[in-house]
Amino acid sequence: MKTAETYPIGTPGTPWGDAECAEWLSSQTRQRSYEAEVLSVIERLRSRFDVEEYGALDYGPDYYPLMAIRSRDWNDDLPVVLITGGVHGYETSGVHGALQFLDKHAAEYAGRVNLLVAPCVSPWAYERIHRWNRNAIDPNRSFHEGSRAEESAALMRLVAPIRDSALIHIDLHETTDTDESEFRPALAARDGKPFEPAGIPDGFYVVDDSENPKPDFQQAVIKAVEQVTHIAPADENGEIFGSKVVARGVIEYPLAQWGLCAGMTRAPYRTTTEVYPDSPRVTPEQCNAAQATAVCAAIDYGLAQPSF
Predict the structure, then answer these.
(1) Which residues on adjacent β-strands are paired with residue 51?
(2) Cα distance between residue 88 and residue 80, in whole Å
(3) Contact partners, residue 295, CB within 8 Å, separation at least 6
(4) What is the residue extent of each domain of the chain?
(5) Could you report the per-residue pLDDT of 214-260, keeping only the tens digit for each?
(6) Distance between CA atoms of 177 and 160, rounded to whole angstroms?
(7) Per-residue pLDDT for 4 more than 80?
(8) Angle, to 10 degrees, between the axis of helix 18-26 and the axis of helix 184-191?
(9) Strands of 2-73, DSSP E
(10) Would you tell me the crossing angle of helices 215-225 and 284-304 to the nearest 10 degrees?
């Protein structure tokens, strides 16, 4: 495993400058196709949904349209559900779970909610199976005013009209073995900090908002998903990634304070899902299904509340 001291770029204890970021960028290679694997699927959904380009990444020579899918018969009297995936491009089931929900389950909610789905927020990183964008910035720490991540800024512009009125925001993520072997060591090296191993939780979990927790909502998601894949246990310290497990499969972060995608709206029901695709107990199909199931559970819970 790499550490901040053994990471091949930079000097231990010294944050990266332009030269180190350029060296990192030169090592990134395209490993899959956004056009073939994502845009083609979105194209097939056009007959059932409104599809729009809400921005683009001009990462010359590469150009990536940023795509969103909406309910065709948008009704301002209905609650709004925001679904985001691929904020970290390498987290595959976040992208394909969102698309699977649209294809297989969205019809069940027609006339009951308005859906706004951004299935692949970070297409450059999707192609390179990476956490950061082209500029070595983590989009999922960049949902704040003046964001330097184009991916995050574009999504915030898209969401602005429903920011204060959305009922639910579910942000679909994965925790992978490469978090510990590559991405967290890279982060420590980039920032000139020591790498502190945390271990990878084996299973699905969710992240609630520590500033406005909704424990019953989170448990509704957990109970639905455990029918599809196993739930991550707490470690010997009762934690996941250094955060206290407040209920089975649930930890909390200050979503807005940390600039996380799930904190970008004032939706009363917000969660970040974390699927574990590297477990020998799951398949890619199960991972996608877990994400789609989490979306359904989130919507079902929101619609069941007294105000709706």
Answers:
(1) 69
(2) 23
(3) 83, 97, 98, 101, 105, 170, 172
(4) 18-304
(5) 999 999 999 999 999 999 999 999 999 899 999 999 999 999 999 99
(6) 34
(7) no
(8) 150
(9) 49-59, 62-71
(10) 140
Cis peptide before 61 (omega within 30 of 0): yes
**pLDDT tens digits for range 46-101:** 999 999 999 999 999 999 999 999 999 999 999 999 999 999 999 999 999 999 99
Strand-strand pairing, 205-209 and 269-275: antiparallel
d(CA 284, CA 157): 32
- Report how far apart the first and last C-alpha atoms of the chain are (Å, whole number): 49
Mean pLDDT of 173-190: 96
- Amino acid in position 112: R
pLDDT above 70 (res 308): no
Q: Tell me the pLDDT tens digit for each residue of 10-39.
A: 999 999 999 999 999 999 999 999 999 999
Across the chain, which distance is largest between two alpha carbons, in Å? 56
Please give the DSSP secondary-structure letter assigned to residue 43: H
Mean of the pLDDT values across residues 173-196?
A: 96
Question: Dihedral (C-alpha) 229, 233, 239, 244: value to the nearest 10 degrees?
Answer: 70
The length of the chain in residues reads: 308
Res. 2 pLDDT band, cuts 50 70 90: confident
State how far the Cα of 227 lies from the Cα of 243, in Å rounded to an integer. 25
What the block records as the tokens of 41 is 């699927």
To the question of domain 18-304 being in CATH 3.40.1280.10, the answer is no
Spatial separation of the C-alpha atoms in residues 236 and 247, rounded to whole Å: 15
Indicate if the pLDDT at residue 111 is higher than 80.
yes
248 burial class (0-12, 13-18, 19+ CB within 10 angstroms)?
Answer: middle
- Residue 109: how many CB atoms within 10 A of its CB? 20
